[in-house]
Specification:
8-stranded mixed β-sheet, 2 domains, 11 helices
Length: 353
């Protein structure tokens, strides 16, 4: 059977070629990489041919769980030996750019788990490369594939205040970046999907609990139209929680993102009426990967675009800088002053700035 043409979103017009399974590689075989591999294995439209994993134990696991699949030690080795048509990048965030840039440069359509890159400049470079090469580059913002966002946009299009809480127990996973890039970025992406208004001001604070990066973060964002959002993320909590609370004129909604239950309260006459709706997709990851494959197969724009990924990284970086500024200010204010006059003069200068 002839192979599909690699790269540039194009395939042979011959029906046999067009419907042949796409050759897939999964880059990284940790917990989430294994999930990606299983989804591709379950799809008739894809064939998992390769895994890239440098850890010896995970290499053995990949071989045992995916008979017939070749496991490579690096992306370079993969591309030299058997370039795939599409790939999922599921490695620590600090390696997203290096893996994705090699794949895109080789003409491989690429799904990159969030964040698109750990720095905005790198994310922009990936987006530009994909556009220039006419390749699909889809950031893995999984919450887009729950139905909560669509329900909120439909029922509360003109919201005024939003509160998102995303709390998880501690694990050693993803400690190469702070909790803003690790967890809060999900809610940043949802927030940007719910509002087209520019973000004018960001105030934020963070706490380092178990790692060298911020493990708990809280951010307050103000939009150009006056709407505000409060985002809280923690990877050092005792009790997991994923909740979204949205307030608008005469209505509010509380969504539990874990189980998909949404309670919509609206004013009705002199009282309140409550609607209970279930919005969660039964398998968001399968939906995300299916959307990626569909975009490649039919030469369609990604449902979540590279530009979406860049915007999320940009706001995450701004929140990180706001936390650093806040910590610097607190540190300077907490430094003992020799006398009250010096302290007063310092505070006046700080307030003016």
């Amino acid at each position: 059977m002839a192979k599909n043409k690699i790269g540039h979103g194009s395939f042979s017009k011959h029906p046999q070629d067009f419907y042949a399974p796409l050759n897939v590689a999964v880059i990284g075989y940790g917990t989430f990489g294994r999930l990606h591999a299983r989804k591709y294995q379950s799809m008739a439209s894809t064939a998992l041919m390769s895994v890239v994993e440098s850890n010896p134990e995970r290499r053995e696991l990949a071989l045992s769980e995916n008979p017939g699949t070749t496991v490579y030690d690096s992306v370079e080795e993969l591309l030299r030996s058997s370039p795939p048509q599409i790939a999922s990048v599921v490695v620590p965030a600090k390696h997203h750019y290096s893996a994705a840039v090699q794949l895109l440069s080789a003409g491989v359509h690429t799904l990159v788990e969030k964040p698109l890159a750990s720095e905005l400049g790198q994310a922009r470079e990936l987006a530009d490369l994909a556009e220039k090469s006419k390749l699909v580059l889809q950031p893995g913002h999984l919450e887009r594939f729950n139905h909560t966002l669509a329900e909120l946009r439909t029922r509360l299009p003109q919201w005024h205040y939003l509160e998102a809480r995303r709390m998880s127990r501690w694990s050693a996973r993803a400690t190469d970046v702070d909790v803003v890039m690790d967890l809060m970025i999900h809610d940043i992406d949802m927030l940007l999907e719910l509002s087209d208004e520019p973000i004018m001001e960001i105030q934020a604070r963070g706490v380092k609990v178990f790692s060298e990066h911020w493990d708990v973060a809280s951010a307050q964002l103000t939009f150009a139209n006056g709407s505000t959002a409060s985002l809280t993320a923690s990877r050092a909590s005792l009790q997991p929680e994923r909740r979204l609370h949205v307030f608008a004129d005469s209505a509010c909604a509380l969504a539990n993102i874990d189980d998909g239950l949404m309670l919509l309260h609206r004013r009705e006459g002199d009282g309140l009426a409550t609607d209970r709706r279930f919005c969660r997709h039964e398998d968001p990851l399968a939906a995300e990967i299916a959307a990626f494959v569909h975009s490649v197969r039919y030469d369609k724009p990604a449902l979540v675009t590279a530009e979406d990924g860049c915007r999320a990284v940009e706001i995450a970086e701004r929140i990180g800088k706001a936390i650093e500024h806040d910590q610097e200010l607190l540190s300077r204010i907490s430094t003992p002053m020799p006398d009250s006059e010096q302290a007063t003069a310092y505070l006046q200068q700080t307030l003016i700035q």
